[in-house]
Specification:
Helix content: 40-55%
Bound molecules: guanosine-5'-triphosphate
Mean pLDDT: 96
Number of helices: 8
Distance between the termini: 18 Å
Strand order of the largest sheet: 3-4-2-5-6
Strand content: 15-25%
Length: 172
Amino acid sequence: MTIHLPELCLVALVGASGSGKTTLGGRLFAPGEVLSSDAFRVLVANDENVLDANGDAFDALYFVARKRLARGLLTVIDATNVQADARKRIVDLAREFDVLPVAVVLDLPEEELLARHAARADRPFGPGVIRQQVQQLRRSLRRLQGEGFRHVTVLGGAQEVQAAQVVRERLY
Ligand code: GTP
C-alpha cells in the first residue's frame, strides 16, 4: 500500500499498543518528523510508562508540534490516538496551521496484539488494556472522516503495515 501525503500535513498514527506505530514511523519518516508520546514521557519523567506524566508529555509534544508546523514541516503524532478526544486535538491543531490532518491506522487482529504484548517486558499493563484499545479502534474506524481527517489509510494487518510506503506530493 502506498500512502500519498501532501508535503506538508499533520499525520496521526492510530493503533493499539504494540500495533507497530513507532516501528512504522521510524521506517517511513525522518527522526525529527515523528513526535512520540513515549519519547515525550521519557523526556518529562524519565520513563515511558509513567502515565501520570501524560499531561506534561502531551503539552511538550504539542509545543514542539506547533514549532514544526509554524516552520512548514510535516509532523507525525505517534500515540495510540484510539480515543476521539485525542484525535480532535490533532484535527484542531491541523486547522490552526491550515494543514491537512491525515490518519494512518494500524488495524491488527486482537490475538496478534495480545501475543506481542505478552512478549514485551516494556509494557507493564494487563491484556485488558489492549482489548479496550482494540474496541476503541473498531469504533473509531467509521468516524475518522467525519472527525475531519481528510485522508485515512487503514493498514489491515501486519503484512500491510510492513509493506506500506509513503509518497509525498507537492500538489494534493
Ligand atoms: P506502543 O508504543 O506500545 O503504543 O507500541 P507501538 O504501536 O508503537 O509498537 P512498536 O512499533 O513500539 O512495536 C511494539 C512491539 O511489536 C515491539 O516489540 C516490536 O518489536 C513489535 N513489532 C513491531 N512491528 C512488528 C511486526 O511487524 N511484526 C512483529 N512480529 N512484531 C512487531
